[in-house]
Amino acid sequence: MDLSGDYGEVDTDINSQKRARRLAKKLFGALQNQRQFLVMEDFLPYFNKPKEAEKAFALFDKDGNGDISKREMKDMVIFIYKERKALMIGMRDMSQAVGKLDRIFLVFAFIVLFIACCMLFDNSIVKTLIPLGSMFLALTFVFGSTAASLFKSIIFVFVTHPYDAGDRVFLDGDNLMVFKVGLLSTIFVKADGQMIYAPNEVMCTKFIHNIRRSGNQSETIELGIDFYTPKAKVMELEQKINDFLQANSRDYHPSINIHIADMTKTNMMKLYIFLEFKGNWQDGGRRWERRTRFLFALQESIIAVGIKYYLPPQPLHIHNAEPSLPF
């Protein structure tokens, strides 16, 4: 595949988002066949087997509609760059944790070797073990809690392993990014830039919601409308929303249903709209951009259909009493 062109030779070893965008543009241009989108047949000449071409095409065709747009190509190449960067950081953190664990095991091995040597060169095993046992008993009182904390942290990092560097997680209701995973603690970053240092011993007791490892995510949007709104208007609103979702099927599941969740006396009907996104919310900026776009489309549909909500009328009593005269 020829990736040379107006921008010169493009290095496929991408190490920045700028290079990722350039590579995506060149890939799309090299595969393009006088169309504004790519189809699976465009991939076939570059693979030995059709199944390999299908797998490569499916990697970029996230919405499964049978074609790849420029935006899909760009988003996927940038996504691969970010995933590779996160993988490298995760491997670095694991390597550092394994190095620390290796030093701890070396200390234990030295202690065991020392005891074995003492027992080998001293005929009186009891005389050797009694002072060593006393020493270990004293150390237990000093370092017992530290050893327990270390054991829990090892299990958490290497066995449970609930996240890697770069993962977006929800922890106690907070939206956090994993910055670094250590043997004894984890560093998180909040949306405002604050760094949070959390002991892994404490993290063992938490419910951790890993967004990167999640599939398609969804949310429920609540909408209040006037109690006397006709059913036909609600159905028309549902149809307009579905038209928008089908036109933007790369980002949303192409169908929704509007449900009446509750009725507040004879004043308001509460509607629930279950919206499913394509992909998860690892990319926070993309998540809010898609949500905002949907809400604007919902607003336009509500205005076009003529659905409104009015506050309930309040009784107003006017007393026309004669004012008392000052004379």
UniProtKB/TrEMBL annotation:
Localization per record: Membrane
Cited InterPro entries: EF-hand-dom_pair, EF_Hand_1_Ca_BS, EF_hand_dom, LSM_dom_sf, MscS_beta-dom_sf, MscS_channel_2nd
Residues of the EF-hand domain: 48-83
Membrane-spanning segments: 104-126, 132-159
GO cellular component: membrane
UniProt keyword terms in alphabetical order: Calcium, Membrane, Transmembrane, Transmembrane helix
Gene3D superfamilies listed in its UniProt record: 2.30.30.60, EF-hand
Gene Ontology MF terms in the entry: calcium channel activity; calcium ion binding
SMART domains, A to Z: EFh
Pfam families, sorted: EF-hand_6, MS_channel_2nd
Protein name as annotated: EF-hand domain-containing protein
